[in-house]
C-alpha cells in the first residue's frame, strides 16, 4: 500500500493503464483487419478451386468435395460477364444467417462485425461476397461456417493481448526507472534537505546545495536555497536582536532608576533663587523627563506581545470623554482646545482598555505637536458607523508630521510623530488595532494638521 501511495508507484500504475488502453484501441482495428484478411483468403482459395472447373467442366464429386475442403467453404459462386454461375457446391449443415459484402465495408462496420463474431460462440453459416483477384470476374461469393474464423480470431487476439501486456510491462518498467532516476529521487532529495534543515535552521551547513541537472528540479533547489539562506540570516539577526534587546532592557532599567533619582534633585534645583538656574532648570527637567519616558517605552516594548483583546460592547463616547479629560489636565497653560463628534448611541465592539490606549496615544501626539509649535490649535475626535466597520478619526490643526515620521510610520525607533519621540507609541497603537482585525492609517498630514483613522470591523476579530 505504501508503494501505491508513492509518486513512482502511481506513475507505474498509470503507465500500465495508459499503455493497455492504447493497446486496446489498437486491438479492435487489428482483429477486424485479421477477420477481413481471413475472409479474403477464403475467397481467393475458392477462386483458385473454381479454376479447376473452368479448365475441365466435368469433375468428379470426390474432387469437387476436396476442392471445397481445401478452400474451407461450402459453395462458390462466380459472376463472369454478368452471368452468375454456381461453380462448386456441397451440402450445407445449416441455413445462412447473415451476408457480408467486403467490397464496400467501412472500417467501423468491419470492427463491429469482428466484435460480434468474437462475442458469438455458436458456429453460424454466413455468405461472404468480394471482388475476385486478378480481374477474374465481377464478384465471387462463398458460404462458410464461422467456427474456424472465430477460433483463428481468438488465437490471434490472445497473441495480440499477450504481446500488448508484455509491451506494457516493459514500457512501464523502463518509464518507472527513468522517472525514479530523473524525477522521484531528486524530489526525495529536496524533501530530505528540507527535513534536515528544519531540524536546525540556524545551521548554515544544512542549507541545500543545488546539484540537479533537470531544469525544473534545479529551479526548485535554487528557490529553496534562497529561502533557506534568507531564513538562516533572519534567524541569526533575530537572535542578535534578542540579545541586544535584553542588554538594552537592562541598561534602560538601570538608566531609568538613575534618571528618576536625578529627577528628584531637579525638583530642588527649581527652588533655587539663582536666575540662571531658574532659566536652565525647566530645560533640564524636560530633558530628564524625556529620557525617563524613553526608558519606560523601551522597557514596555521589549516585553511579551500584547495580550489578545477581550472584546466587549460599550459606548464610544465614554472612552473619548475619558481621554479628553486626561489630556486637558496635561495641557497646562498651552492654548489647545478639544472637540468631539461622537453620536450618543454609537456602540463599538472592542477591548475597552486597548482602545483607550490607542486614542490616548493619538491625542497625546497631537497635543505635543501643537504645544511644541508654540501656536494655538485644536484636536478633534469623531466617530461614525458603516455597514462593515466603526471608524474613528483623530485630527489636529498642528504643524503636521515630520518627514522622518512619514517615511517610517508605525516603525519603532525610526522616528516619532513628535520631535524627540521614538515612534513606539504609534507602533504599539497599530499593533493593538491589528489585534482587533482593524487598521490604523494616516489619512493626511501637511502644514495645516494631521488626521489618523482607526477602522474596526463590525465582525470582530479578522479570520483572514
UniProtKB/TrEMBL annotation:
The protein's name: histidine kinase
One GO MF term attached to the UniProt entry: ATP binding
SMART domains hit by this protein: HATPase_c, HisKA
Membrane-traversing stretches: 12-32, 160-179
Enzyme class: transferase
Its membrane topology: Multi-pass membrane protein
Reaction catalyzed: ATP + protein L-histidine = ADP + protein N-phospho-L-histidine
Keywords, comma-separated and alphabetical: ATP-binding, Cell membrane, Kinase, Membrane, Nucleotide-binding, Phosphoprotein, Transferase, Transmembrane, Transmembrane helix
Domain Histidine kinase: 250-460
Organism: Roseovarius atlanticus
UniProt GO cellular component terms: plasma membrane
Location within or outside the cell: Cell membrane
Record has ATP-binding as a keyword: yes
EC numbers: 2.7.13.3
Keyword Transmembrane among UniProt keywords: yes
Record InterPro entries: 2C_sensor_his_kinase, HATPase_C_sf, HATPase_dom, His_kinase_dom, HisK_dim/P_dom, HisK_dim/P_sf, Sig_transdc_His_kin-like_C
Amino acid at each position: 500500500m505504501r508503494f501505491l501511495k508513492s509518486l513512482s508507484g502511481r506513475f507505474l500504475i498509470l503507465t500500465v493503464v495508459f499503455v493497455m488502453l492504447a493497446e486496446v484501441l489498437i486491438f479492435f482495428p487489428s482483429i477486424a483487419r485479421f477477420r477481413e484478411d481471413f475472409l479474403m483468403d477464403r475467397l481467393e482459395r475458392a477462386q483458385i478451386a473454381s479454376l479447376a472447373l473452368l479448365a475441365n467442366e466435368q469433375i468428379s464429386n470426390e474432387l469437387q468435395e476436396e476442392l471445397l475442403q481445401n478452400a474451407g467453404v461450402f459453395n462458390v459462386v462466380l459472376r463472369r460477364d454478368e452471368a452468375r454461375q454456381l461453380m462448386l457446391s456441397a451440402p450445407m449443415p445449416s441455413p445462412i444467417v447473415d451476408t457480408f459484402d467486403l467490397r464496400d465495408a467501412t472500417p467501423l462496420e468491419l470492427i463491429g462485425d469482428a466484435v460480434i463474431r468474437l462475442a458469438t460462440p455458436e458456429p453460424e453459416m454466413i455468405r461472404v461476397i468480394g471482388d475476385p483477384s486478378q480481374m477474374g470476374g465481377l464478384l465471387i461469393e462463398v458460404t462458410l461456417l464461422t467456427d474456424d474464423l472465430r477460433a483463428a480470431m481468438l488465437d490471434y487476439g490472445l497473441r495480440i493481448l499477450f504481446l500488448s501486456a508484455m509491451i506494457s510491462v516493459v514500457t512501464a518498467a523502463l518509464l518507472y526507472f527513468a522517472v525514479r532516476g530523473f524525477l522521484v529521487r531528486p524530489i526525495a532529495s529536496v524533501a530530505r534537505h528540507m527535513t534536515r534543515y528544519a531540524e536546525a535552521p540556524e545551521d548554515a551547513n544544512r542549507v541545500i546545495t543545488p546539484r540537479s541537472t533537470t531544469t525544473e528540479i534545479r529551479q526548485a533547489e535554487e528557490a529553496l536555497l534562497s529561502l533557506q539562506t534568507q531564513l538562516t540570516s533572519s534567524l541569526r539577526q533575530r537572535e542578535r536582536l534578542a540579545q541586544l534587546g535584553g542588554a538594552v532592557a537592562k541598561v534602560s532599567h538601570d538608566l531609568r532608576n538613575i534618571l528618576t533619582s536625578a529627577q528628584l534633585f531637579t525638583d530642588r534645583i527649581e527652588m533655587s533663587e539663582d536666575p540662571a538656574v531658574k532659566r536652565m532648570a525647566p530645560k533640564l527637567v524636560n530633558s530628564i523627563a524625556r529620557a525617563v519616558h524613553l526608558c519606560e517605552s523601551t522597557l514596555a516594548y521589549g516585553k511579551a506581545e500584547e495580550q489578545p483583546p477581550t472584546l466587549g460592547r460599550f459606548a464610544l463616547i465614554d472612552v473619548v470623554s475619558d481621554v479628553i479629560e486626561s489630556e486637558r489636565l496635561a495641557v497646562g497653560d498651552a492654548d489647545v482646545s478639544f472637540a468631539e463628534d461622537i453620536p450618543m448611541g454609537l456602540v463599538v465592539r472592542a477591548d475597552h482598555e486597548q482602545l483607550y490606549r490607542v486614542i490616548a496615544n493619538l491625542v497625546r501626539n497631537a497635543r505635543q505637536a501643537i504645544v511644541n509649535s508654540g501656536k494655538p490649535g485644536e484636536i478633534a475626535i469623531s466617530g461614525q458607523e458603516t455597514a462593515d466597520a466603526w471608524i474613528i478619526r483623530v485630527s489636529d490643526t498642528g504643524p503636521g508630521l515630520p518627514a522622518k515620521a512619514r517615511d517610517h510610520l508605525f516603525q519603532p525607533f525610526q522616528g516619532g510623530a513628535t520631535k524627540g519621540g521614538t515612534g513606539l507609541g504609534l507602533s504599539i497603537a497599530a499593533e493593538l488595532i491589528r489585534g482587533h482585525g482593524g487598521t490604523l492609517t494616516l489619512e493626511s498630514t501637511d502644514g495645516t494638521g494631521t488626521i489618523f483613522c482607526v477602522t474596526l470591523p463590525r465582525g470582530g476579530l479578522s479570520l483572514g
